Inverse folding.
């Protein structure tokens, strides 16, 4: 079971409070986590990554275990603590501007 | 009992203002989609309870929202919460946010380039929906004008969107360039007398018309003169800010260009200037009285570098002669120290017996006149910056 946190705008869009807990089949990667997230919450399609290219939107960041994973390859394994649910996979709106 | 519903899009959410036909006492909703940029909301003429809204964010992209109960509740079309994530036929949901340029061999056009501000080529890239125009007859059909400039249509209530690629690909697309606000398709006029005819306008490419329901398009910019492009009378490159018509006379078009207020009496085939005695003919918004096809309204703005009213006086100008002769309407509007802007989609009219005129400002005020502009009063003063105003006249 993977834990995911969303920024407030996306929580409101998905009509959820707090953390999401979701099962991911197979290797736990960014792509697998986002596929599972969008399958359960289709209203989030296009808000985190582009509909067509599947690239992360420029102002969205991925953090976990105290590290910035935004620029990791989508199919690279996420840290073991994320895969076991010990740590959340954090989807964050980048801070831009003052 | 008749009344009006004013749909206000702001930089930080949408607001719905309602009143009975007297238009004296108003109810202001709490914000819908708080924190999001709401570029435009518009109700279906065929079903006033059906409202479409464009919700966007530089962070999270484009969302389409729909209400089927007059704005009380909203959902993303095709993705109601709590339902299975695929339709019975197996197609995925979550498509209502998906605006993809059509490059298919059968219906689309190759995705080449347009021009950037400096004239260098840029590939087309979808950014946001500026304007939603519901069909005059079918609540499930709605058009979307987007940045980078293109026209999309949905025929399933906003669940899926398909580009009318003949516009972007009609031949001049590689010469289009962005205006200061981006390369946006911001005006969509559906001809009530001819379902095959649509007018659109793009900043800063100009105005275009289709006579075959969107398959083919041609520029309609003859007579426009713009000093800031290499050839001031070029077929393409004019920064059209807004076009309006009266539904009883759709061949007569009124345009607020970057500079110049213009009129066409032949569906855009040619234009002549009608700025007349306006104190400045720069501006964004323009609209037409609901019952007097020759009465038009503009809000003159000082210049393209100073986006606020002349002399700090907020004045709507009205022409009852279809242009050239203008009168300032000031009663109830601030006449000192006012430095707000009125954006292109931020003026609208109702169709009650005494036509109501409405506009919103970047200072967060929404002003209304229940007597065709003679007197004005603020409905609300302290909203976030207003991007768009639309009015529904309810019976």
């Amino acid at each position: 079971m993977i834990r995911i946190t969303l920024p407030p705008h996306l929580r409101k869009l998905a009509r959820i409070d707090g953390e999401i807990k979701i099962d991911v089949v197979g290797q736990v990667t960014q792509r697998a986590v986002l596929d599972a997230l969008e399958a359960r919450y289709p209203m989030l399609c296009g808000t985190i990554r582009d509909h067509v290219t599947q690239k992360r939107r420029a102002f969205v960041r991925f953090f976990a275990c105290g590290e910035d994973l935004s620029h990791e390859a989508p199919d690279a394994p996420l840290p073991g603590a994320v895969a076991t649910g010990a740590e959340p996979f954090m989807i964050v709106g980048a801070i831009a501007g003052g | 009992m008749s009344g009006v519903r004013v749909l206000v899009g702001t930089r930080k959410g949408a607001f719905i203002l309602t009143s009975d036909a007297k238009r004296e006492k108003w109810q202001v909703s709490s914000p819908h989609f708080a924190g999001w940029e709401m570029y435009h909301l518009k109700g279906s003429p065929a079903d006033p309870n059906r409202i479409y809204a464009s919700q966007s964010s530089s962070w999270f992209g484009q969302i389409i929202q729909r209400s089927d109960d007059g704005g009380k509740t909203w959902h993303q079309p095709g993705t109601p919460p709590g339902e299975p994530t695929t339709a019975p036929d197996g197609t995925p949901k979550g498509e209502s946010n998906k605006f993809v340029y059509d490059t298919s061999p059968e219906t689309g056009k190759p995705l080449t380039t347009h021009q950037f501000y400096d004239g260098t080529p840029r590939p087309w890239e979808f950014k946001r929906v500026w304007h939603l125009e519901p069909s005059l007859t079918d609540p499930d059909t709605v058009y979307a004008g987007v940045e980078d400039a293109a026209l999309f249509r949905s025929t399933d209530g906003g669940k899926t969107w398909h580009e009318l690629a003949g516009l972007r690909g009609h031949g001049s697309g590689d010469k289009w360039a962005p205006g200061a606000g981006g390369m946006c398709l911001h005006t969509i006029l559906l001809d009530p007398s001819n379902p095959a005819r649509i007018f659109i306008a793009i900043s800063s490419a100009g105005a275009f018309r289709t006579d075959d329901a969107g398959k083919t398009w041609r520029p309609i910019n003859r007579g426009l003169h713009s000093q800031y492009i290499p050839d001031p009378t070029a077929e393409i490159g004019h920064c059209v800010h807004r076009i309006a018509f009266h539904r009883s006379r759709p061949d007569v078009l009124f345009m607020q260009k970057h500079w110049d207020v213009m009129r066409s009496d032949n569906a855009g085939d040619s234009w002549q200037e009608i700025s007349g005695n306006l104190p400045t003919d720069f501006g964004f918004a323009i609209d037409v009285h609901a019952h007097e096809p020759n009465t038009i309204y503009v809000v003159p703005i000082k210049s393209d570098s100073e986006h606020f009213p002349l002399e700090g006086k907020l004045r709507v100008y009205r022409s009852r002669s279809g242009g050239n002769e203008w009168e300032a309407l000031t009663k109830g509007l601030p006449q000192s120290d006012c430095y707000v802007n009125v954006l292109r989609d931020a003026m609208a009219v109702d169709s009650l017996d005494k036509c109501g005129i409405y506009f919103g400002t970047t200072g967060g005020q929404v002003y209304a006149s229940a007597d065709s502009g003679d007197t004005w009063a603020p409905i609300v003063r302290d909203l976030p910056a207003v991007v768009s105003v639309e009015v529904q006249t309810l019976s």
The helical segments of chain B are 165-168. The longest strand of chain B covers residues 47-57. The longest helix of chain B spans residues 165-168.
